[in-house]
């Protein structure tokens, strides 16, 4: 089997294991994280209605120019999503980290979001 195909298959398996344990609702939406080499983005998703309630990314106009695919960028996105969630009226979420481990940028994002008032 091709090495890249094998890696992708393992990622998909890990993602499904994480996602099967949680579903988002209007009270506790699913906070879906996407991490790439250059950027970090997050969405608050209501799975019952099939809607995205709020989103934030390092590509947004509100993000600073120097923010990119690093821990500072992830923590900036954590603060932005907490502000947008409070504007919509969301205080508690369920974190869906996908196939990413809880360290580095994902951990920096989660700590910044918790400090800004989100509960998960």
Automatic annotation (TrEMBL):
Summary of the function given for this chain in its UniProt record: This is one of the proteins that bind and probably mediate the attachment of the 5S RNA into the large ribosomal subunit, where it forms part of the central protuberance.
One Pfam family, short name: Ribosomal_L18p
Single annotated GO MF: structural constituent of ribosome
Family of the protein in this entry: Belongs to the universal ribosomal protein uL18 family.
Subunit structure: Part of the 50S ribosomal subunit; part of the 5S rRNA/L5/L18/L25 subcomplex. Contacts the 5S and 23S rRNAs.
UniProt organism field: Rubripirellula tenax
Protein name: Large ribosomal subunit protein uL18
InterPro entries with a match to the protein in the record: Ribosomal_L18, Ribosomal_uL18_bac-type, Ribosomal_uL18_bac/plant/anim
Alphabetical keyword list: Ribonucleoprotein, Ribosomal protein, RNA-binding, rRNA-binding
Organism superkingdom: Bacteria
GO biological process: translation
Signal peptide positions (record): none
NCBIfam families assigned to the protein according to its UniProt record, in alphabetical order: L18_bact (TIGR00060)
Any one cellular-component term (Gene Ontology): cytosolic large ribosomal subunit
């Amino acid at each position: 089997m091709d090495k890249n195909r094998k890696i992708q298959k393992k990622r998909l398996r890990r993602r499904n294991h994480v996602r099967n344990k949680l579903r988002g609702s209007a009270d506790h939406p699913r906070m879906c994280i996407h991490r790439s080499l250059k950027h970090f983005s997050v969405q608050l998703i209501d799975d019952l209605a099939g809607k995205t309630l709020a989103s934030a990314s390092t590509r947004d106009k509100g993000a600073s120019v120097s923010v990119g695919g690093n821990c500072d960028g992830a923590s900036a996105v954590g603060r932005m999503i907490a502000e947008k969630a409070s504007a919509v009226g969301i205080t508690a979420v369920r974190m869906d980290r996908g196939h990413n481990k809880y360290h580095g940028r994902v951990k920096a994002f989660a700590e910044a979001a918790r400090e800004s008032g989100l509960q998960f």
